[in-house]
């Protein structure tokens, strides 16, 4: 009998079904190869997305953070300045912490960054306990925005807006695929 020779997982794969979802595999004709930084264009379809998205994240983040460090600012400080400036109503400290902590390196980083910005004189608290940029904070935010725009130009060199949008759509779809699959 076939099932004695082939286990249920092997049969699912052999018959074209995803083991994770037991749904038919469609448009999945390429096997994955090991990560290869020297992969040629015709080999890219076999490359692992985790490797390449991780490499892109690390390189872009390092590029951004190194440039900000040269002017004694951190990326999380930039996030906080933008968030405090970025809405119709000034946020509270707690709102900023809740909104930005998922981006941060740890659960307490954003609260510390807010304290750093108070110490620099870039933030203040109004009578309603809402965070506000000081004049110096607004000057810093504008300067950082200009820097980030320059850095983005370097990252996007040779990449059209259409290519950039297509790449983000693919990444967004991959995230949705994983999340729709119960995160596994």
General form: elongated
CATH architecture title of the largest domain: Orthogonal Bundle
Task: Output the strand order for the largest sheet.
Answer: 1-2
Unreliable segments (pLDDT under 50, ≥5 consecutive)? 1-7, 9-17
How many structural domains in the coordinates? 2
Derived structural class: mainly alpha
- Tell me how many strands there are: 2
CATH topology of the largest domain: Arc Repressor Mutant, subunit A
What value does the average pLDDT take?
Answer: 86
Report the sheet with the most strands, covering strand number, pairing sense and barrel closure: 2 strands, antiparallel
Alpha-carbon distance between the termini?
Answer: 32 Å
InterPro entries: WH-like_DNA-bd_sf (IPR036388), WH_DNA-bd_sf (IPR036390)
Organism: Streptomyces antimycoticus
Protein name: HTH marR-type domain-containing protein
Structure in words:
The chain is mainly α and 184 residues long. The chain has two domains: 1-30, no CATH class; 45-180, Arc Repressor Mutant, subunit A. The protein contains eight helices and two strands. A hairpin with a 5-residue loop joins strand 1 and strand 2 (131-133). Helix 3 packs across helix 7 (135-155) and helix 4 (75-85) crosses helix 7 (135-155). It is elongated. Residues 1-7 and 9-17 have low confidence and may be disordered.
């Amino acid at each position: 009998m076939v099932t004695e020779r082939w286990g249920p997982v092997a049969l699912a794969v052999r018959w074209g079904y995803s083991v994770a979802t037991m749904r038919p595999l469609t448009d999945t004709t390429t096997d994955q190869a090991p990560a290869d930084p020297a992969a040629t264009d015709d080999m890219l379809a076999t490359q692992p997305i985790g490797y390449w998205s991780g490499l892109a994240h690390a390189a872009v983040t390092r590029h951004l953070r190194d440039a900000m460090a040269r002017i004694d600012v951190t990326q999380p400080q930039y996030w906080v300045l933008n968030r405090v400036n970025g809405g119709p109503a000034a946020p509270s400290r707690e709102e900023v912490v809740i909104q930005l902590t998922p981006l941060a390196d740890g659960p307490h980083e954003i609260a510390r960054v807010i304290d750093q910005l108070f110490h620099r004189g870039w933030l203040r608290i109004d009578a309603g306990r809402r965070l506000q940029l000081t004049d110096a904070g607004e000057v810093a935010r504008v300067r950082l925005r200009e820097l980030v725009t320059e850095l983005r130009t370097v990252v996007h060199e040779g990449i059209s807006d259409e290519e950039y949008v297509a790449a983000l759509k693919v990444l967004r779809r991959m995230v949705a695929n994983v999340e729709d699959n119960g995160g596994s």
